[in-house]
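Figure 6 in text form: structure in, sequence out.
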């Protein structure tokens, strides 16, 4: 305090006196005070921080006594943070690869035709969305809508089997696998199958699914008649005889014209097939392609990027074969050995030697090993090339024959979660193939190598006959037309969000480069695999392109007549097929 008073006194004297002699003798003292640390500042800081400490202690004490710990709390383990669970009335629905997901509070499960009619009529009156979900497997999430969906999972009965006519009538919610099981006792089966059999029949036909075989059409051609429940007009029956124009349009209607409630399908006699798998190369395929396409009931090629390997899979009735040896030269373990060895070597490089000695490796299937291999470095081209070469070796040691029922033989293990793009384009006829299918593949493989795309295997190539459904990618009025379907892929072998995002970005770059070939071959994407661009200009180009191939105006006109309030629509459908004229108001 004395220092403080002295300082103030001296300053007053200094500022109040005009005579230099009045304060000159005190200048040394002032200089000494000004050069030393300020006691005023030190005292003030001390009081300030002491106050902060007392405030903190007081708040802590108040909190402790206001909210005491429960008994035994000190002995409880810390629980890591978890996101709050979804509300009970909120449904999370995603497609199989988890590339598209929505959350909705409206997910209806009608268990009868009247219940479905009532649900759609109510949605129409109230102008609510109710998108038909199917099994939700479509890679592009075509059936998803956060505004509301309807699932026919409870409408899964076989209603009638006519063994003489070889037809079956089912509720559209039955899965393909369940239908095939039910047909077995009647000695019937479906004409063709896609790679998997978990689809609901309604979605199976609505997206134009397909198998392979140059003389076998996509599955919508198996539809003889259907009951379609529409928001505006209720239930209508369609067939070649009853409103044929709408019938053909609605067979591949993408769920936009009505909900397929019941469907009658043309079946075939249950039969066995002999599958012949062998490895070839591009030159040999070119020499034999016309013959193979014509002679084999089912055929597909699996192209392995960055190699000259083409896996050829041919399936035919047993009568076509002269007692083939139904065993492979190598056993399953021998076929997988090269892939296992690569995985162990890669684990040493990317992880640890301990992991490479894990005995569980010997229990993994080929597709599981491929997923684990790719997961180590999915976007490194050199690593992907090694995996592809290992796959080529696997197929070389898997050559041979096997025989079984058609629904078992025609299935295909597609691997784990993935991004996929598949397009369809005309390739002449069975007797006069244009060879554009092989030309397309050649250019695609060249593009992959030129652009250093980390493209995994396989690039799957299949064929179908034409479809009379105008919205089918294989639509044609020419009876003999053949279409080739080519699918490119990138696996999502990891749950790491950052890595999945990077793979997704690389896949869309891959798809964009492949897209540069489409116009030259009149190629159009599978409806369940077409992705809607985010860029407005790209979207406008896609819309214009679709109009060149499909009867978009007729499709939209039917949509507005059967679903004026767009109950069945979602964002994807609206962007693909925008309605240009003003909507008619529902009465």
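Output sequence:
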């Amino acid at each position: 305090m004395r220092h403080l008073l002295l300082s103030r006194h001296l300053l007053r004297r200094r500022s109040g006196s005009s005579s230099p002699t009045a304060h000159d003798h005190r200048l040394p003292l002032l200089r000494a005070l000004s050069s030393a640390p300020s006691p005023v500042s030190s005292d003030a800081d001390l009081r300030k921080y002491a106050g902060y400490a007392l405030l903190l202690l007081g708040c802590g004490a108040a909190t402790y006594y206001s909210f005491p710990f429960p008994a035994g709390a000190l002995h409880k383990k810390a629980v890591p943070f978890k996101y709050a669970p979804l509300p009970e009335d909120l449904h999370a629905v995603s497609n199989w690869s988890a590339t598209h997901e929505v959350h909705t509070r409206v997910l209806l499960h009608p268990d009868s035709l009247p219940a479905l009619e009532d649900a759609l009529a109510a949605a129409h009156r109230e102008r609510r969305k109710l998108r038909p979900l199917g099994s939700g497997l479509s890679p592009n999430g075509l059936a998803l809508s956060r505004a509301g969906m309807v699932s026919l999972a409870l409408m899964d009965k076989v209603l009638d089997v006519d063994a003489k006519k070889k037809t079956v009538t089912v509720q559209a919610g039955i899965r393909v696998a369940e239908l095939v099981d039910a047909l077995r006792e009647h000695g019937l089966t479906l004409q063709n199958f896609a790679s998997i059999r978990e689809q609901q029949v309604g979605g199976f036909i609505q997206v134009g699914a397909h198998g392979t075989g140059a003389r076998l059409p996509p599955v919508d051609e198996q539809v003889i008649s259907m009951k379609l429940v529409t928001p505006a007009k209720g239930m209508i029956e369609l067939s070649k005889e009853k409103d044929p124009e709408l019938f053909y349009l609605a067979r591949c209607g993408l769920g936009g014209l009505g909900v397929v409630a019941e469907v009658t399908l043309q079946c075939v006699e249950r039969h066995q097939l002999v599958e012949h798998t062998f490895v070839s190369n591009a030159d040999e395929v070119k020499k034999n392609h016309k013959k193979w396409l014509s002679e084999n009931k089912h055929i597909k090629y699996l192209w392995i990027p960055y190699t000259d390997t083409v896996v050829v899979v041919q399936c035919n009735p047993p009568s076509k074969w002269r007692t083939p040896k139904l065993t492979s030269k190598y056993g399953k373990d021998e076929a997988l050995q090269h892939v296992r060895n690569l995985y162990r070597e890669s684990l040493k490089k990317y992880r640890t030697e301990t992991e490479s000695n894990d005995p569980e490796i010997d229990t993994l299937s080929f597709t599981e090993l491929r997923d684990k291999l790719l997961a180590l470095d999915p976007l490194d081209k050199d690593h992907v090339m090694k995996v592809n070469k290992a796959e080529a070796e696997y197929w070389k040691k898997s050559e041979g024959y096997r025989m079984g029922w058609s629904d078992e033989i025609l299935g295909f293990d597609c691997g784990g979660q993935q991004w996929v793009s598949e397009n369809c384009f005309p390739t002449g006829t069975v007797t006069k193939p244009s060879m554009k299918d092989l030309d397309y593949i050649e250019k695609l493989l060249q593009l992959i190598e030129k652009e250093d795309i980390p493209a995994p295997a396989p690039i799957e190539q299949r064929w179908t006959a034409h479809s009379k459904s105008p919205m089918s990618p294989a639509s044609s009025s020419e009876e003999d037309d053949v279409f080739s379907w080519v699918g490119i892929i990138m696996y999502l072998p990891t749950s790491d969000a950052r890595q999945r995002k990077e793979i997704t970005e690389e896949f869309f770059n891959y798809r964009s480069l492949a897209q540069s070939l489409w116009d030259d071959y009149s190629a159009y994407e599978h409806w369940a695999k077409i992705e809607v661009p985010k860029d407005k200009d790209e979207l406008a180009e896609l819309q214009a392109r679709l109009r060149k191939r499909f009867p978009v105006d007729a499709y939209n006109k039917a949509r507005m007549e059967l679903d004026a309030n767009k109950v069945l629509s979602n964002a994807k459908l609206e962007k693909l097929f925008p309605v240009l004229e003003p909507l008619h108001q529902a009465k």
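Caption detail: The longest helix spans residues 39-66.
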